[in-house]
Write a structure and sequence with these properties.
Layout (H helix, E strand, L loop, with lengths): L1 E3 H4 L9 H11 L3 E6 L5 E5 L11 H12 L12 E5 L4 E3 L7 E8 L8 H9 L7 H13 L4 E4 L7 E5 L5 E3 L5 E3 L5 E4 L4 E4 L3 E2 L12 E7 L2 H11 L4 H6 L8 H16 L2 E4 L2 E4 L7 E4 H8 L5 H10 L3 E5 L2 E5 L10 H12 L20 H15 L3 E2 L5 E2 L1 H4 L21 E2 L3 H14 L4 E14 L2 E17 L8 E2 L2 H15 L6 E2 L5 E9 L2 E6 L1 H6 L7 E6 H5 L15 E10 L4 H10 L5 E10 L8 E10 L8 H19 L2 E2 L3
Parallel strand pairs: 4-15, 5-8, 20-23
Antiparallel strand pairs: 1-3, 2-3, 6-14, 6-15, 6-16, 7-14, 8-11, 9-10, 11-12, 12-13, 17-19, 18-19, 21-22, 23-24, 24-25, 24-29, 26-27, 27-28, 28-29, 30-32, 30-33, 31-32
Length: about 675
C-alpha cells in the first residue's frame, strides 16, 4: 500500500523524521518496504499491510491508526453536498442478499466530464495510477483516501434498472480492461435488465463506463461477501484495487457516507445536479461484542497494564465500551473486521503498549498429561520393552499395492481408495508387516548389514458389517543386526531370536503363549506358527524378493488387543528352601514335537515340579535312524520344606513313565 506523506498529513498533524516514521510504521505492524521521493519533496512509503487489516488500505485508515498509536487528534474531512429538488429513484433489486447484503446508489445528472485538475493527477501518480477522466479519477481518489471502492455507471447506457444477482451460465461481459469474460452461476454480477454490466466488486464493464460524453451517472457503494469476491477474482485471474479490498473485508457501515462524499466531489469538479436522497437496498446489521477483563489482558501479556491505558487506547481505536468491576464490554468499530475474540483485544493492547515494554522471558510451559488408558499404557510399554531389547520403531504409510495385498492373509476384503496418493498403492494395508518390509528394504539398500524394526499401526479391511480397523504390532529382523565387539555378542536375525522376543512380550503382559504350526500367505510353508490371531515365522520369500530384500526375514504380527487380555501373576514370596535339579536324556521318535512333550509333562500334575526346559537335541552317532535324543532339565522345589532325594527320584520316574506311555520314549543307555 503506497502512502503519500503529504496526503497523510491532511488527516493528522505530526512532525517526525524519516527514520522515526519508519520505526513507528514498523511498531504499528506495517513495515516499510520502500520509500520514494518526488520532486515536490513528498515521500511515498510502500507499506506492507497484513491481510487482516484492510482498514489500513487507505490514507485515512493509516492516519487513524497513527493517531491511535501516537495519541494525536484525527482530522475529519468536510465535504459540502447540495441536493437537487428532484428525488433519486431507480429500479434496483438485490437478488443474492447472501452475497451482497447492502447496496447504496447516488444519482447525478447533467455533469460535465472533463480532464482532472493537476493536484488530483499528482496524487494518483504517487500511488501508481494514471488519470482517465475527472469522474473515474475521483472514484480512485476516494478509494485511496478512505479505502472503500466505488463504481460509477453511465446511466444513459443502462437498460432500465440494476439487478445484483448470480450470473447465468454462459453470460459474457466485455470488461474495462478490454477482455471478454464468460460467467458461471457461481459468479456475482451487477446487471441491467438485459445483461451483466459489471463483475461485482471486481471490475466494471466497457459498455457502461464513464466517458467524456457521459451526462448522467449512478454511483455504486456496496458491501459484498469477501469470499465470493475472492473466488471470482481468482477464477478470472483479476486483481484490481477494488477486489483487493473487498475480498479482505470493507466497512459495511460507511456506504452512505462514501456515496455522499463522491457525489459532492463530482458536483464540485464536474458540476451537475445531485438528486435528493439515496437509493438504498438491503441492510447490514451485526452485534459484535467482546467481553474481557483488564486482568486477562495483563495475564496474557505478562505485564500489569493500567486500566486507563487500555480504555484510552480502545476508545481511540473507535471502540464503544462499558466498564463494570474491571470487566470491559467492547463493541469494535465497523471498520475493524479482525476484532472478534478477547485474544484479539490482547494483541491490540500489546501492539499499542509496545512489544519492547513487555517482559522478554518466556512463560513456563506445562505439558498437559494426556488421559491414561489401558491401550495407551500398553503401547508405551511395548515401545519401551522393544526399544530396550535393541529394536527400532518404524512409522510407515498405510497404503499398499494389490500385488502385496494378496499376501495379507484374507481378512475380509481390501479397502480401495477413491483418490489414492500413489496409483500403484490404491489399497489400505490389511497387514502392518506389508509396509514394515519396505522400511527393512530401505535400510538394507542404505548399507546396513541387518536391521530389527517394529511398528505399532493400524490395519484395515471390510466385511459384511462394514469397514474394520485394528491396531497391530509388527516385529521383524534380518541379517547381522549387531556385530560382535569386545563387550557385546553378535546379534544375527533368526527365528529363535524373534520367538524369544515375542515370548518375552507375552510374559510381560501375562499372555499365555502356546504356538502351534499353521500356514499363512505372509510366511513360508513349514516356517509359520500361530497363536489365536498372532502369527510368527519366516516371511514368504516371494514377498521379500518383491520388496528387494536379499536374505531371510523373521517376523511376527500380533493384535494389540491380545496384550490387553493378559493377566499378570501376582507377587509370591521368594521360596526359602533349596531346589533340586535333575537332567535326563530320553530317546523319542523323530516326529514327536517338543510342544507335545511339554504338554505331557505338565499333565502329570506333579506339585514339586517347579519348571523344566529343553537343554539339547542330538541326532547322529549312537542314535538309531528315525530317533532323536532330547535332554531335559527338571527343577524340583517345595515351598514349605527341603525335598528328600527319594521323592525327587519318584517324581522323575513318574515323568519318564508318562512319556514312555505316550510317545514310546526310552532313557538313553537303558
Amino acid at each position: 500500500m503506497k502512502i503519500s506523506l503529504q496526503w497523510l498529513k491532511e488527516y493528522i498533524d505530526f512532525s517526525l523524521s524519516l527514520k522515526e516514521l519508519e520505526e513507528i510504521f514498523s511498531q504499528m505492524g506495517f513495515p516499510v518496504e520502500e520509500v520514494e521521493e518526488f520532486e515536490d519533496g513528498d515521500l511515498v512509503f510502500d507499506l506492507e499491510i497484513t491481510p487482516n487489516r484492510p482498514d489500513c488500505l487507505s490514507h485515512y485508515g493509516v492516519a487513524r491508526e497513527l493517531a491511535t498509536f501516537l495519541n494525536l487528534e484525527l482530522k475529519e474531512p468536510k465535504f459540502d453536498l447540495e441536493e437537487d429538488r428532484e428525488i433519486a429513484e431507480y429500479d434496483i433489486e438485490i437478488e443474492a442478499p447472501e452475497l451482497c447484503p447492502k447496496y447504496v446508489a447516488r444519482i447525478i445528472k447533467d455533469i460535465n466530464v472533463k480532464d482532472s485538475p493537476q493536484w488530483l493527477k499528482e496524487k494518483l501518480v504517487k500511488v501508481g495510477l494514471q488519470s482517465i477522466n475527472i469522474v473515474v479519477d475521483l472514484s480512485n481518489y476516494l478509494l485511496y483516501a478512505f479505502g472503500h471502492p466505488t463504481h460509477v455507471f453511465d446511466m444513459d447506457r443502462l437498460k432500465g434498472g440494476l439487478r445484483i444477482r448470480r450470473a447465468r451460465q454462459g453470460e459474457k461481459l466485455l470488461c474495462l480492461d478490454e477482455e471478454e469474460r464468460e460467467f458461471s452461476k457461481d459468479d456475482l454480477v451487477i446487471a441491467d435488465l438485459e445483461k451483466p454490466v459489471a463483475i461485482a466488486g471486481v471490475i466494471g464493464g466497457e459498455d457502461t463506463g464513464v466517458i467524456f460524453a457521459t451526462k448522467n451517472v449512478l454511483i455504486e457503494s456496496a458491501y459484498f461477501n469477501p469470499e465470493s469476491i475472492r473466488r471470482t477474482a481468482r477464477k478470472f485471474g483479476i486483481s484490481t484495487d477494488a477486489s483487493y479490498r473487498f475480498e479482505r473485508g470493507t466497512d459495511p457501515l460507511i456506504l452512505e457516507k462514501i456515496s455522499d462524499i463522491l457525489a459532492s466531489l463530482i458536483q464540485k469538479y464536474a458540476g451537475g445536479r445531485v438528486l435528493k436522497g439515496r437509493v438504498v437496498r438491503g441492510d447490514f446489521r451485526e452485534d459484535r461484542r467482546i467481553n474481557v477483563s483488564v486482568d486477562f489482558v495483563s495475564e496474557r501479556l505478562g505485564e500489569k497494564v493500567p486500566q486507563d491505558f487500555v480504555v484510552s487506547k480502545l476508545q481511540r481505536m473507535g471502540c464503544s465500551l462499558s466498564i463494570q468491576n474491571g470487566r470491559l464490554e467492547i463493541t469494535p468499530p465497523s471498520w475493524r473486521r479482525d476484532l472478534e475474540i478477547p485474544e484479539d483485544i490482547v494483541e491490540e493492547i500489546a501492539r499499542l503498549y509496545g512489544y519492547s515494554n513487555l517482559p522478554s522471558e518466556l512463560p513456563p510451559v506445562v505439558f498437559p498429561q494426556g488421559l491414561r488408558t489401558p491401550v495407551r499404557d500398553t503401547r508405551w510399554k511395548i515401545r519401551e520393552m522393544l526399544s530396550n531389547m535393541g529394536y527400532f520403531e518404524a512409522m510407515t504409510y498405510i497404503f499398499t499395492s494389490e500385488e502385496k495385498d494378496k499376501y495379507s492373509g484374507g481378512n475380509g476384503e481390501p479397502i480401495r481408495l477413491t483418490n489414492p496418493l500413489n496409483k500403484e498403492e490404491p489399497l489400505l494395508r490389511r497387514s502392518v508387516l506389508l509396509t514394515l518390509l519396505d522400511s527393512i528394504s530401505l535400510n538394507l539398500r542404505m548399507g546396513n548389514s541387518g536391521v530389527a524394526l517394529f511398528e505399532l499401526g493400524k490395519s484395515y479391511w471390510e466385511n459384511k458389517e462394514g469397514p474394520v480397523e485394528e491396531e497391530r504390532l509388527a516385529i521383524a529382523e534380518t541379517g547381522v543386526v549387531q556385530e560382535r565387539t569386545w563387550n557385546t555378542h553378535e546379534w544375527r536375525g533368526s527365528f529363535y531370536s524373534l520367538k524369544g522376543t515375542v515370548e518375552a512380550l507375552f510374559a510381560q503382559f501375562g499372555v499365555k503363549s502356546r504356538f502351534s504350526e499353521a500356514e499363512h500367505p505372509l510366511f513360508e510353508k513349514g516356517y509359520c506358527l500361530k497363536m489365536e490371531d498372532a502369527w510368527l515365522g519366516v516371511v514368504n520369500r516371494e514377498l521379500t524378493k518383491k520388496c528387494e530384500i536379499p536374505g531371510w526375514v523373521f517376523a511376527a504380527e500380533i493384535p494389540v488387543k491380545m496384550f490387553l487380555r493378559g493377566k499378570r501373576e501376582s507377587f509370591r514370596d521368594v521360596i526359602k528352601h533349596p531346589y533340586v535339579k535333575r537332567d535326563i536324556s530320553l530317546l523319542f521318535p523323530e516326529g514327536v514335537k517338543f510342544s507335545k512333550i511339554e504338554e505331557a509333562i505338565k499333565a502329570t500334575g506333579i506339585s514339586i515340579l517347579h519348571c523344566f526346559s529343553l537343554l539339547d537335541i542330538y541326532t547322529g552317532k549312537g542314535i538309531k535312524e528315525g530317533e532323536k535324543s532330547l535332554t531335559l532339565s527338571l527343577i524340583f522345589r517345595a515351598e514349605d520344606r527341603t525335598l528328600r532325594s527319594e521323592e525327587v527320584e519318584q517324581a522323575v520316574d513318574e515323568i519318564v513313565r508318562n512319556l514312555e506311555e505316550k510317545f514310546g520314549a526310552k532313557r538313553r543307555g537303558v
